[in-house]
Amino acid sequence: VAEIGLEEAWHGTTRRVEVDGRRLDVTIPRGADTGTKIKLTGQGPGGGDLVVTTRVRPHPVFTRHGADLERDLPLTLEEAVLGAEVPVSTLKGKVLLRIPAGTQNGHRFRLKGQGMPRLRGEGAGDLYARARVILPTNLDDDTAKAARAFFSKLNQPDPRA
User: Fold this and answer.
1) Could you tell me the pTM of the whole model?
2) Count of C-beta atoms within a 10 Å radius of residue 109
3) Residue 74 · residue 84 · CB < 8 Å
4) How far is CA 131 from CA 32, 48, 80, 95, 112, in A?
5) CA 18 – CA 14 distance, rounded (Å)
6) Are 117 and 10 in contact (CB under 8 A)?
7) Fewer CB within 10 Å, N side or C side of the chain?
8) CB-neighbour burial class of residue 34 (10 A; exposed 0-12, middle 13-18, buried 19+)
């Protein structure tokens, strides 16, 4: 078993394995996933084939679903209510995502082609960024008063009704 990180699976990598006192470099292709098998013909014990299976470690930011990735996207209350352009980190780098005004917590944005490369195919999967609105805490008296004034001007129906 060759254990790799998600970034290594995205770029492709090599791992060194030892078989019968010999060291062999195994090329792990872009897009490899947990369970991907790499066959080294004639390199196993007694001249047989050697099969190396990959295992991709969990990532602290991204969750993988085949070629698609998913991540949380923290947003301020202002960004969610009024809209904004926010940077989103991907495995390729950062992209700017336009957040429309009124974005609800949990809304999923699809970033086409920003997921994992397909192992034996063309292109890449998608990245889904899930809005996670971070509410302000520890409001002082003046800020709480301004918030009450703001909310009193809203005509928002009871969402539980």
Assistant:
1) 0.88
2) 16
3) no
4) 28, 51, 8, 15, 17
5) 13
6) yes
7) C
8) middle
